[in-house]
Amino acid sequence: MGLDIRINLPKGQSTETYDVVIVGGGPAGMTAALYCARGRRNTVILERNMAGGQIALTELVENYPGFPEGISGFDLSDRMKRQAAQFGAELREITTVSSLTPDPDGSFTVTTDQEKIRARTVILSPGVEAKRMGIPGEAEFVGRGVSWCATCDGALYKGKQVAVVGGGDSAVEEGMFLTKFADKVYLVHRRNELRAAAIAQERAFANPKMEFVWDSVPRRVEGDQLVSGLEVQNVKTKELRSLPVNGVFFYIGQVPLTAFLQGVVALDESGYILTDEVMRTSQCGVYAAGDARANPLKQIAMAVGEGSLAAVQAQRYLDELECPSSGPAAAQAAAAAQAAGAAPEAGAADAPGHEATAGAPGPEESTDAPAPVEPGAAPSSKD
Ligand SMILES: Cc1cc2nc3c(=O)[nH]c(=O)nc-3n(C[C@H](O)[C@H](O)[C@H](O)COP(=O)(O)OP(=O)(O)OC[C@H]3O[C@@H](n4cnc5c(N)ncnc54)[C@H](O)[C@@H]3O)c2cc1C
């Protein structure tokens, strides 16, 4: 079966009702699409950018099984995309989902910036995006020295100096990637030790182009037309210092892209989607997978595992068209939904198996959680 990729359809109401509509074309969404399409379900992925998600922004993936030499993020996402398309999954790129509405007949209306699409079941995999630091200069210099993507922008810094902010895996790995271009990479971290994987730390410490700026938080991105420095403050001595850099890359954590789901499915206090252990959300017929779910590991292997499980559960739902309606796990799901401030859908609120997963942040997020801010100390220090 060939590729079936439709991009930028005319605005309006889609006449077709899909068995499965998947929101987000990252690893979780593409895996869910592969499983659903291979199960002969009429499946579409809606993706606001180009498919691939965060891995398309990753230079090298070394910890995804099956690729002992590692694989570029772009190649891996391209393979996932082709594999889903091979079984007939449809992909609509540059299509942003703005709302999800349950219909009285048990189906759903998914509204995008292009049209309204009807779905029998929905899998949510919108992922996360980089958290903003909120310091002066950060927003002003986006595209002129401030970035969240070393893979996209690293080559612009050949022979220059850059700063990377953060202490988790992303910060260390992307900092190492930047040493391919930059003469020096300052890694600014608010503690005096990293939380990245041991092997990443070993490599970083052995790299003569890496300079570690410990116990320090960024205070201001400096520059005129382009970035010319990053002012950092030592959190112990309070000393201010300006690092002479042309680029600043922030890796201080993530926020889930779930604003459009407020009041539709239960979210935790940080906005991550609550589900039970088989990916069912508080809304009967709606499943969630990947980084946007309240899970303890934000990695590709986790996202694809959850995508496959969500797909299998969605297909069971399509066969039976019912959510179980009693049992202890259902009560927990209802409680989670209430705690999150979202009204659980009738029926689903009673559903067994909706044992909500507490919103434990993934390692990247927990490692980059905002530091406590001293009274009067502004802006907040996060790395
Ligand atoms: C710099 C970096 C390096 C990383 N390196 C590794 C690594 O080496 N190994 C590893 O295992 N993991 C790595 N990760 C983490 C990994 O990329 C994620 O865990 C994985 O991509 C999560 O997949 P996902 O499908 O849940 O979400 P995402 O990859 O975030 O995909 C979600 C998709 O949904 C789309 N979307 C969002 N909202 C909407 C909407 N309203 N409408 C339509 N589409 C929408 C987004 O555009 C995005 O394409 C890295 C992450 C980063 C940022």
Account of the protein in words:
By secondary structure, this protein is of the alpha/beta class. The chain has 2 domains: 12-128 and 257-352, FAD/NAD(P)-binding domain; 146-252, FAD/NAD(P)-binding domain (3-Layer(bba) Sandwich), CATH 3.50.50. The chain contains 8 helices and 19 strands. The protein has helices at residues 27-38, 73-86, 150-153, 169-178, 198-206, 300-320, 328-339, 363-367, and strands at residues 12-23, 43-46, 60-61, 71-72, 90-92, 97-102, 108-112, 115-124, 128-130, 146-147, 161-165, 184-188, 210-213, 216-223, 227-234, 240-243, 247-250, 254-256, 286-288. The strands form 5 sheets. Strands 1, 2, 5, 6, 7, 8 and 19 form a 7-stranded mixed sheet that branches. Strands 10-17-11-12-13 form a 5-stranded parallel sheet. Strand 11 (161-165), helix 4 and strand 12 form a beta-alpha-beta unit. Helix 1 packs parallel to helix 2 (73-86), helix 1 (27-38) packs parallel to helix 6 (300-320) and helix 4 runs parallel beside helix 5 (198-206). The longest helix has 21 residues, at 300-320. The chain is elongated and about 65 Å long. It starts with 11 loop residues before the first strand and ends in a 16-residue tail after the last helix. The model is unreliable at 1-10 and 342-383 (pLDDT under 50). Bound molecules: flavin-adenine dinucleotide.
